[in-house]
Amino acid sequence: MCKPGPWSQGPVLLQQLALLPPDLPPYGSADHVHLLVENCKLAMADREAWYGDIADVPLDDLLSDAYNTARRALVGERASHDLRPGSPGGRTPRLGAHARVAGAAQEGFDALGIGEPTVAGSPANPVPGEPEITADGTTRGDTCHLDVVDRWGNMVSATPSGGWLQSNPVVPELGFPLGTRLQMAWLEEGLPSSLTPGRRPRSTLSPSIALRAGVPVLAFGTPGGDQQDQWQLHFLLAVTQRGRVRGGPDLQGAIDAPNWHNDSFPGSFYPRGMRPGSVTVESRTDPAVVEELRRRGHEVTVGGPWSEGRLCAVARDPETGVLSAAANPRGMQGYAVGR
């Protein structure tokens, strides 16, 4: 897997993969969802303690077999409500004061806060045919994702965001829009993601390229703030656990499968809320799975039938040259185009 470094949340996907046991439960089963949610909590706790635009992020230890074998043992049959960063290489984790405060469910809680410009705060009264323009003319939308593959196997996966005219304040005298990512830095000193001259804020933007035997075979990604590397993991596992169609991976089936996310860690967007033990699932999820997750102690919220994920993907089979593409049917309409 190719991911952005720890100035983003990119290694969270790699940590979640490293935490997986050799044999996985059936995709979409209660065992499967529980396992991925609990693994995500561990990876996101490490994100809070260790990631940032600094030179000494212990990535080798965070991704090592020994570290993840020990961390894997923390996953039990019950949902964890604790933020549990690890101690890679014997180091002592440090969480900011905000992250150390136990979160509580808040009325009107939005995992994306008010700072995530794309998925949060979808218009209540959209203009027909223009889902990101409200009836009063307000325009939303910022982060997007694009994957491209050509006949020679060159691949691009990109998740541009921020500093766009339609979604950010413009400095009148200078004519350019401000960015919004500094909200992801902490003002508390001494943290890997503290506001520091010359350092980038720890971003959530996290495109992906998967390789097989060193050859790029799959590019994918999504908008969605802290949910990006949750939805991407679910998609990647769905691709590997589903059958092939028309000589290629079932990308569209993997995107369309019922999805979910959890908010058991401090959000990256103001006001940085968290809901320990929470899981939000689409209403298309098997009711028996929802019931079993609740029995295990998860605080389950059932959302809309097509509310989780904004994924798109392209693939190329290096043996046959067959190209595949699929796009998101949720929220903002995505497109798969070939020529």
TrEMBL record:
Q: One Pfam family this chain carries?
A: G_glu_transpept
Query: InterPro entries, per this entry?
Result: GGT-like_enzyme, GGT_lsub, GGT_ssub_C, Ntn_hydrolases_N
Q: Which SUPFAM superfamilies match?
A: N-terminal nucleophile aminohydrolases (Ntn hydrolases)
- Name the residues that span the membrane: none
Q: Which domain of life is it from?
A: Bacteria
What is the name listed in the Swiss-Prot or TrEMBL entry for this protein?
Gamma-glutamyltranspeptidase
The scientific name of the source species is Streptomyces viridochromogenes (strain DSM 40736 / JCM 4977 / BCRC 1201 / Tue 494)
